[in-house]
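Sequence only, no structure available. Ideas?
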Amino acid sequence: MKNLFYLFSIILFASCVSHKQVTYFNDIQELETGKLNIPNAPSAVLKVGDLVEVQISSISLETNAYFQKDQSSSDEGFGGNLYQIGENGFIYLPLVGEVKIAELSKEEARTAIEEALLEYVQKPSVNLRIADYKITVLGEVNAPGVYKIPTGEATVLEALGYAGDLTVYGVRKNVLLIHDNGVEKSFHRLNLNDSKVLESEHFYLQNNDVIYVQPTKGLTSKDDNIYRILPLVISSLTFIAVVISLNQ
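Reply:
I predicted one. Tokens follow.
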């Protein structure tokens, strides 16, 4: 019986996840205050296939009407002025024609559109945002899925927040980030146990980024219920073994 108790104890401790593994930023956990060198969000670079909302205004109300498209049910949350960047990198604006904005930042794209408008519009003003900005979060999180980000900007932590945070079984020190710039795909590893991740160039996500959180060793699926109840079962068996050993 004593050997059985030792066996149960070993299995129980082996099945547990350490506190250090499931906490973020272990290197500053004991500090009460300090400074973090979090970089400013980089300007998103537009690419072929992006859907952008372009709002154009000027001092002429009649001219403004040329650029106001009818809103459809799929444009909910937007003004209706949606344009998809074509394979050649251009969008087609009424009255103006083609304007190339692919491979430009949002600020550069606004400037390019305003310059194209000057021939037709007095004192044009342009607002532009990515309308289909989304990130995908998969693996050991509480709510995996595809999330649209209305602001067109998100950090790794915000993305995980959308997905309900990592489960206790998610490996925080080896989170996989897959990035697609429209030409090629690349991947990067992020260690959320270390606060240096906040200073990483990959802390801010880009459109269509994918985050994958792998499970701890021994887990193969978030829905593998046997692993969810295993610690409880082992704890119960251990308790029973202890009671029996004490009564002998």
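The longest helix spans residues 225-247.
Hope that gets you unstuck.
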